[in-house]
Amino acid sequence: MTPPAIVEFRDVSYRYKDAGQNRQAKVDREQTAASVSALDGITLDVKPGEFVAVIGHNGSGKSTLAKHINALFTPSQGTVLTAGLDTSDPDLVFTIRSHAGMVFQNPDAQMVTSIVADDVAFGPENLAIPHEQIISRVDSALDSVKMAEFADRNPAHLSGGQKQRVCIAGVLAMQPDILILDEPGAMLDSRGRRGIRRVVRELNDGGMTVVLITHFMEEAMSADRVFVMSAGRIALQGTPKQVFSQKQRLRELKMEVPFSILLAEALQQRGIAVPNMVKPSELKEELCRLRLSE
Ligand SMILES: Nc1ncnc2c1ncn2[C@@H]1O[C@H](COP(=O)(O)OP(=O)(O)OP(=O)(O)O)[C@@H](O)[C@H]1O
Ligand SMILES: [Mg+2]
After folding, report:
1. How many domains does the chain have?
2. For residue 29, is it within any domain?
3. In a shared domain, residues 214 and 83
4. Ligand 2 centre distance from Cα of residue 136 (Å)
5. Which of 27, 38, 203, 213 could form a disulfide with 208 if both were Cys (CB 3.0 to 4.6 A apart)?
6. How does pLDDT run across 3-46, given as a tens digit for each residue?
7. Could you identify the atom of ligand 1 that is nearest to the CA of residue 213?
């Protein structure tokens, strides 16, 4: 029997109210709704322990979708259930946020204190959790993101990747079941991104449900399932292999085709019998195997 979904969207649409003064005046004159459609009839579910990647061109609705999971936004139409709780119920907002924690693009904008451990403690302190428990939560969260030795440092002196790992620790200290990351590597170098990728992988291996929004195809490749968004809809979904092998569709959706897929295709055209590979590591293994069997 499949377990119930930990995140469920049922026919969810969301419209941003257009705050532009001139536009508002014009719209009032025209007697039409002044709003921007950002989500348009989204239905999806995420199973407990699943690692889901959300990709899509700029403005396709990824961040808007993410903010619905932890009740930062509530649907204009439809229903979102997080850990079985209806995000539209104002009485449930804090419980929902304790189940689903979110990490954003810019680590500097998420840091609030001048000592790493204090920053990680900030969330649990606001929940009035007993001091002893906070200390053990902070230790364990920093350990999970490989930042324990930086507990007493000033976050301002850390690299972008280290800061982002501290932000993840801050979310972990709230002991969520779902970790939502909205382009956590967008402002990092490749080394910083690798560190985040490793930490997220390990957390997921430990049972954490992960929803990762990313522009980096190699990050989406390590997910269990990929959703491709376009104009507020899910345009394509499936395992990384199913999604990334649809080269033509990806191009139509303004998405780049991963290098490993293009390379496998070029090798096939030259008569080298490699299957369509998604992960570069798989392609490398296959090439080594072919070479050994020559
Ligand atoms: N505060 C806002 N007010 C009005 N429209 C908005 C607002 N934020 C986003 N939008 C619009 O909603 C749509 C979806 O935006 P969203 O930020 O969710 O996309 P995204 O896929 O996260 O984009 P990006 O890759 O640039 O982060 C876009 O058309 C965007 O212009
Ligand atoms: Mg976004």
Report:
1. 2
2. no
3. yes
4. 33
5. 203
6. 789 999 999 999 998 544 443 444 444 444 568 999 999 999 99
7. 22
Q: Determine the structural domain holding residue 268 and report its residue range.
A: 258-294
Strand partners, 225: 52
CA–centroid distance, residue 186 to ligand 1 (Å): 16
- If asked whether residues 184 and 272 sit together in one domain, one would say no
The pLDDT value recorded for residue 278 is: 63
Q: Are residues 243 and 268 in the same domain?
A: no
CA of 215 to the centre of ligand 1 (A): 15
Using a 6 Å CB cutoff, which residues line ligand 1? 16, 36, 38, 56, 58-64
If one residue of 60, 68, 182 were mutated to test the ligand 1 pocket, choosing by the most ligand atoms within 8 A of its CB, it would be: 60
Longest C-alpha distance within the chain, in Å? 75
CA of 230 to the centre of ligand 2 (A): 12
Report CA-CA distances (Å) from 98 to 81, 85, 124, 250. Answer: 14, 12, 10, 35
Per-residue pLDDT reduced to its tens digit, 78-94 = 999 999 999 999 999 99
Structure tokens at 241: 């292999």
Among 15, 16, 73, 228, which residue has the most ligand 1 atoms within 8 Å of its CB, making it the best to mutate?
A: 16
27 part of a folded domain: no
Within a domain: 1:
no
Distance between CA atoms of 14 and 27, rounded to whole angstroms?
Answer: 19
The residue whose CB lies within 8 Å of the most ligand 1 atoms, and thus the one to mutate among 15, 35, 36, is: 36
Number of continuous H segments (helices) and E segments (strands) in the chain: 13, 10
Is 103 in contact with 67 (CB distance < 8 Å)? no
The two three-digit tokens of residue 174, written as one number: 């709230």
